[in-house]
Amino acid sequence: MRPATRAAIYRRLRAANPHPTTELLYRTPFELLVAVMLSAHTTDRSVNAATRNLFPVANTPAAIAALGVEGVKPYIRSVGLYNTKAANLVALARQIVERHGGEVPSDRASLEALPGVGRKTASIILNIVFGQPEIAVDTHIFRVANRTGLAPGKTPRAVEEALIAGTPPEFRKDAHHWLILHGRYVCTARAPKCPSCIIRDLCEYPHKTKPPPAKRGGVSAAIRRTAARRRRNAAQHSRRARKD
Ligand code: SF4
Questions:
Q1: Can you give the residue range of the structural domain that contains 157?
Q2: How far is the CA of 120 from the centre of ligand 1 (A)?
Q3: One domain, residues 222 and 178
Q4: Which of 100, 165, 230, 241 is most buried (most C-beta within 10 Å)?
């Protein structure tokens, strides 16, 4: 894809959503870390349902550590793999208390050393909390980057590197959210909404979906049918009038 096309795609995504943000609910960096960590293989909606109950009870590393694994589980049961995530969450909370004075660390190595935190989660925290131009690649972004031709790659890491290399600096900070939202709501896995997609003419996907077929004949045929009906009615009236 030509750099000018890439920039045009980002300009349109920015015009449609100038201030994109995560759909996870959070108020502090630690709450966001917990929410992102819980969101692996789970929808943001079920994470929000869980954290709405969990955070009023425990929303700091010390409080989560004090709650313990069995204490955390009932709050996150709606989230996939909740047994493993509960164990990771408590271990992560303890590590933040013991090694980082209760604060979410601001460097990738420390973040990725936390239990349950991988490259993607670390990138999201670095991007949202610390304002770094990281582009975390999840399943939606992987799909959008490959379909559009924005940053083709066989692995999430390859796509991430291509995105970082090919995204103009002015768009890099928000690229993650624009692409994730586009993949979640427009460029969906099974039936992308190509006919209404705002980057349709710039996208290089060869199998774009087509608009649903219009009803036979469309509007003009409907108008013609109405006119014919009126003519028939008028003819019937005049025949009756002649008989009378
Ligand atoms: S045109 Fe279709 S395939 Fe391309 S980005 Fe839009 S929804 Fe996705």
A1: 1-212
A2: 24
A3: no
A4: 100
